[in-house]
Write a structure and sequence with these properties.
Blueprint lengths: L2 H14 L6 H8 L3 H13 L5 E4 L3 E4 L16 H16 L4 H19 L23 H13 L1 E8 L6 E14 L2 E8 L4 E6 L3 E10 L5 H9 L11 E7 L1 H7 L9 E4 L5 E7 L2 H9 L5 E5 L1 H16 L3
Helix pairs in contact: 1-3, 2-3, 4-5
Organism: Pseudoxanthomonas composti
Protein name: YafY family transcriptional regulator
Length: 321
């Protein structure tokens, strides 16, 4: 009997027991040693948060009133948990032999142990799972360290910003609020003192960054979240309106399962197509995602966004004339 089977069996025994169960009985029913019984009890209590009470003398059972409410979590990691562990493991491996490798070695072993627990005690076959970065952009590591330091130390930050859309260079002084990892790239959410507004900056476009002595101005968490999460995508802000996009019946199978925005509204139309409504502020990212679907997507409203899409498609088509 492997560890997963033993934990499941142990849970069933304790859940059904009206009186404390002795360690000897647990040994007999689980077919393992006394030490293994204690290890499994500790794992069930500490890792899975089971309401175990008792001791080696009187025996063990679930606390009265808690037995009916407690259930074992799924035997498999969730997709998010698996991705997080594998991504952390690969990130640790990428540190190579640098300063972090020795300090993070215990964490690496802990992650490998967690993966092994959910592989029935065997080594997790990392080579059978791929975590593929997608369209990540190269960072200036010195600038990134300054950005991260300013966020953590709550200091103002000065830097040169090169806008991707216009290639214009400007000097900014900001109060960093948080850094965000989105679509394999880093962004800085900050209060721009020159423009007196919240802005999001792509960290890969930041250069000559310098942490200042002045303390950063902190915005309220609700204000920050409302501004930066109220509209579509990373380039958010107060919503300018709602976009209505209709997808073909073929694309509907994918879009209906996608999360575009926390406040999105979606429904199937009578002909099998799918209508999606999302709030948006800046149109650039929304247009990029809609055009990704090509002929399987049509922006219905608002008219201004529809016209922008038509212009972009016309420009793209002119490249092939």
């Amino acid at each position: 009997m492997d560890k997963i089977e033993r934990i499941t069996a142990l849970h069933r025994i304790l859940k059904a027991a009206r009186y404390p169960v002795t360690v000897k009985r647990l040994q007999d029913e689980l077919g393992c040693s006394r030490a293994t019984v204690y290890r499994d009890l500790a794992y069930l209590r500490d890792a899975l948060m089971a309401p175990i009470e008792g001791d080696g003398e009187a025996g063990f059972r679930y606390q009265s009133g808690e037995s009916d409410r407690f259930e074992l979590p799924g035997l498999w990691l969730s997709s998010d948990e698996l991705h997080a562990l594998l991504a952390a493991q690969q990130l640790l491996l990428r540190t190579g032999g640098g300063v972090l490798s020795g300090a993070l070695a215990p964490l690496q072993k802990r992650i490998e142990g967690l993966l092994a627990d959910h592989a029935g005690g065997d080594r997790w076959p990392v080579e059978r799972v791929r975590v593929i970065p997608h369209r990540g952009r190269k960072l200036d590591e010195a600038s990134f360290r300054c950005v991260a330091s300013a966020v953590i130390e709550r200091k103002q930050l000065a830097f040169e910003y090169r806008a991707r859309s216009t290639d214009e260079r400007t000097r900014r002084v900001v109060s960093p609020q948080r850094i965000t990892h989105y679509r394999d790239n880093w962004y800085l959410d900050a209060w721009d003192h020159g423009r007196e507004a919240l802005r999001s900056f792509a960290v890969d476009r930041i250069g000559n960054a310098r942490v200042l002595e002045e303390a950063a101005s902190d915005l309220g968490r609700e204000e920050l979240s409302q501004h930066l999460a109220s509209s579509y995508g990373i380039f958010s802000g107060e919503p300018k309106g709602w976009a209505t996009i209709v997808f073909s019946a073929k694309a509907a199978r994918w879009v209906a399962d996608e999360q575009w925005h926390s406040k999105q509204q979606g429904r199937y139309l009578s002909d099998g197509r799918y209508e999606l409504k999302v709030p948006y502020s800046a149109s650039r990212e929304l247009l990029m995602d809609v055009l990704h679907y090509g002929s399987d997507a049509e922006i219905v409203e608002p008219k201004s966004l529809r016209e922008q899409a038509k212009s972009l498609l016309s420009l793209a088509l002119s490249n092939y004339s």
